[in-house]
Amino acid sequence: MKLNFYLLAAMLCFMSAVSAEQKKPNIVILFVDDLGYGELGCQGNSEIPTPHIDSIAENGVRCTSGYVTAPVCSPSRAGLMSGRHQSRFGWDINVMPHTVPHSGFGIPASETTIAERMKEAGYRTGLIGKWHLGSRKDFNPVHHGFDYFFGFAHEGRYFVRPPYQGVTTLLRKKPLPKGARNNRWYSPEKKLIYHDILRNEPLYDLNNPMLRGEEVVEEKRYLTDAFTDEAIKFIDREKEKPFFLFLSYNAVHSPLQGADAYMEKMKHIPDIHRRIFAAMLANLDDSIGAVLEKLRKEKLEENTLIFFLSDNGGPTKELTSSNSPLKGFKGQFFEGGIRVPFLAQWKGTIPPGQTYKHPVTSLDLYATAAAQAGLKLTPKDTDGVDLVPFLKKEKTDAPHKQLFWDFKADGAFREGDWKIVKFRGKWYLYNLAKDISEENDLSVQEPEKFKDLLAKWTAIRETMPAYKPVKKKK
To answer: Alpha carbon of 192 to those of 177, 247, 306, 373, 406: distances in Å?
Structure first.
């Protein structure tokens, strides 16, 4: 009898532990590349349908002042992945040189990644897509908290490799071949196009293989589709336990390659440059729709917190990716470089159809995920905050009093509605509540406010170290 009692007690404890584990929500971050603030239907664009991405806003919340920590890819990802502003550990670089296959530039082991936090809480972790935080073996995501990795290490990669079958490809090239007109050259079948804006297209695939874990693999699928397929398989494998999925698409980053089926859908767009971009975005939207459908099919929606955001603003001249109505582009600290589409959904927990206006940041994803996993973080662990109480309207104040930015020679600082921006050696002051497009510099009219914000930015910046390559451990 006593044995049965102890057996029953053990079973109840086990069932209680399983029940608690199941209550932890899955966390899915849908991270896209170079998507401008004004390019979604829910952000006001009626030209390119994005119903699946828009559904995240309809079923949850659209943050109209959602920011990332840098206006370019790698430092933005370093901030999100570490939960701390990347300047705290001296991250002042972007592209990992493709010509240096074993570069010492990568996320330092001193930083505890969001994946490592989630593993600590009992989650299965997966990264699918673009990494851009170091290409050397010791920087591989599987050494930084991810149980599963399928993707690539550098800034970009061809969606379909040469000879570019099944796509229309537009690449930057200087000088153009003979026969070019209006700054563009077309192949006879018009499936390959060169144009001479900006610099030459980078050598994306050089020293940048597709990887499954640490193993080099061949990939023939259109890359957006491949990442979606892998994400669905990951959800299927891990659905019985809490999982953390960082689905890091390289769309809509260059190179511009539109799949034939989507080029046909976007044929109403006359300019080929814009049409290819639209095809890539429509493909991305359908891919995200497939991931959302998988969560619905497995009855996981109400136990899954989903975030959608871009890593930085759109490089409009390069991609046509619009940041309207914001000023500036990728690479700048004007709003168009750092304010991004930022959506969240957690059915049954976050009220649907919200528009949230207080500033939030990509650093908050780290703190939010950790909080839902039951982890206790200190201010030293993260510069973010748990957004759930704010999005549930349990807290009505602003999550952040101040936001700080710094990259190379430029920077920015926001406090309330006031923001200073450094661009090409000169500082500007704007009131975003009255001037979201940053057209009226108030640094002369409001000298005390300008001096106050600049002093606060400088005080924070002086605490930041210089970045050094990470040496291999012997």
So the answer is: 12, 29, 37, 48, 38
